[in-house]
């Protein structure tokens, strides 16, 4: 009696990578004589999965020696195990076995967990204002459906662009998601989070990116004078430069007098601000000599290898008003010339004594 059919108890199997799955097949009747084999795929490209002869380390018979139950178990499931499996009955021939009957096929889908996500930022630091692109990637997962969420400091960001490749059916997939973020001066302490959800995960996977790694905030230098201009001749004047609100902290401050560097500045320790930016301060004390009148004192700041940023202040002397018409010498009684200061000019007069 020829076998009427090959019986597959389940038409589809879902399994996670690393687990063991079972493919059920039973044969009714004992003839014709010939082996039963398992294949993945169909046609000339099908792959032999199991036969009684040969070695198949990950495949075992569920019921050893049975002539009707050809159920097999495949252990340590891998993503490449996904596909359609066929249980095939062969008829023994004189030279080679002939395919006699095939089961309808069991579709095996392998659920593979996505790899830990990673986030990359711009190739160089960006200043506050224009949107900056960040990219989150993960791969090796199956099935294809995956959800990606971006958050900044815990708040969901709108309009991420997520692409899953390949677009056609595959044993595993890769994901790339991008989002645009406009940085602010206060983002030195901000965090960006990429969160992915997948059917194989008991909980979402998250990765955090510190926006300080992508941020550059230029310093805002200013120069103050004490006392304020104009100043009294030969009195000490202190110029103070304050370069505030910059990030990262790498900065160098230099003083220039009329364009020439001077090493007389006295820097204060670098200070960290509450928002994570930094402030650098330096003072320069000079005497308000006549030669320094109208001199320009410049504070030059080089930050994070960027072009210098400068701020300047001028030293201006005060001009005390001259006392007009004051006699600086008594009129000599002998008729010699007398010097008078009149409106800021020295006058020489020859008095006459009557």
Word description of this protein:
- This protein has four domains: 106 residues, Immunoglobulins (Immunoglobulin-like, Sandwich), CATH 2.60.40.10; 96 residues, Sandwich (Immunoglobulin-like); 96 residues, Immunoglobulins (Immunoglobulin-like, Sandwich), CATH 2.60.40; 33 residues, no CATH class.
- It is built from no helices and 31 strands.
- A hairpin with a 5-residue loop joins strand 27 and strand 28.
- The C terminus is likely disordered.
- Pfam families: C1-set, V-set.
- It comes from Chelonoidis abingdonii (Abingdon island giant tortoise).
- Keywords: Disulfide bond, Glycoprotein, Immunoglobulin domain, Signal.
The helix content is under 10%
Mean pLDDT: 88
Describe the largest sheet. 6 strands, mixed
CATH top-level class of the largest domain: Mainly Beta
Task: Find the count of extended strands (DSSP E, 2+ residues).
Answer: 31
**Uncertain spans, ≥5 residues at pLDDT below 50?**
321-333, 337-354
**How far from one another are the termini?**
168 Å
CATH architecture of the largest domain: Sandwich
Radius of gyration, in angstroms, nearest whole number:
44 Å
**CATH homologous superfamily heading of the largest domain:** Immunoglobulins
Assembly level: single chain
Q: Give the strand content.
A: over 45%
- Helix count from the secondary structure assignment: 0
Number of discrete domains: 4
Basic shape: rod-shaped
């Amino acid at each position: 009696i020829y076998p009427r059919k090959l019986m597959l108890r389940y038409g589809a199997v879902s399994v996670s990578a690393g687990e063991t799955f079972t493919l059920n097949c039973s044969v009714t009747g004992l003839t014709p004589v010939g082996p039963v084999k398992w294949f993945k795929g169909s046609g000339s490209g099908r792959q032999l999965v199991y036969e009684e002869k040969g070695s198949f380390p990950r495949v075992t018979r569920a019921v050893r020696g049975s002539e009707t139950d050809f159920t097999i178990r495949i252990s340590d499931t891998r993503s490449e195990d996904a596909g359609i499996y066929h249980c095939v009955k062969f008829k023994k021939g004189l030279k080679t076995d002939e395919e006699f009957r095939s089961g309808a096929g069991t579709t095996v889908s392998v659920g593979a967990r996505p790899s830990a996500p990673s986030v990359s930022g711009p190739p160089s630091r960006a200043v506050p204002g224009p949107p900056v692109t960040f990219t989150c990637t993960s791969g090796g997962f199956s099935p294809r459906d995956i959800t990606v969420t971006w958050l900044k400091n815990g708040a969901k960001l709108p309009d991420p662009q997520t692409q899953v490749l390949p677009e056609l059916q595959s044993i595993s997939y890769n994901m790339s998601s991008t989002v645009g973020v406009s940085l602010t001066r206060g983002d030195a302490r901000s965090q960006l989070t990429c969160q992915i959800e997948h059917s194989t995960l008991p909980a979402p996977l998250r990765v955090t990116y510190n926006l300080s790694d992508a941020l550059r905030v230029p310093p805002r230098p200013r120069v103050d004078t004490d006392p304020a201009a104009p100043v009294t001749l030969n009195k000490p004047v202190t110029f103070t430069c304050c370069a505030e609100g910059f990030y990262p902290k790498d900065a160098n401050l230099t003083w220039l007098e009329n364009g020439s560097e001077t090493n007389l500045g006295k820097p204060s320790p670098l200070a960290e601000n509450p928002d994570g930016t930094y402030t650098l301060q330096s003072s320069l004390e000079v005497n308000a000599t006549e030669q320094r009148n109208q001199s320009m004192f410049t504070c030059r700041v080089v930050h994070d290898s960027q072009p210098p940023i400068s701020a300047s202040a001028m030293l201006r002397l005060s001009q005390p008003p001259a006392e007009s018409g004051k006699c600086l010498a008594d009129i000599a009684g002998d008729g010699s010339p007398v010097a008078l200061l009149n409106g800021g000019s020295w006058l020489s007069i020859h008095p006459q004594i009557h």
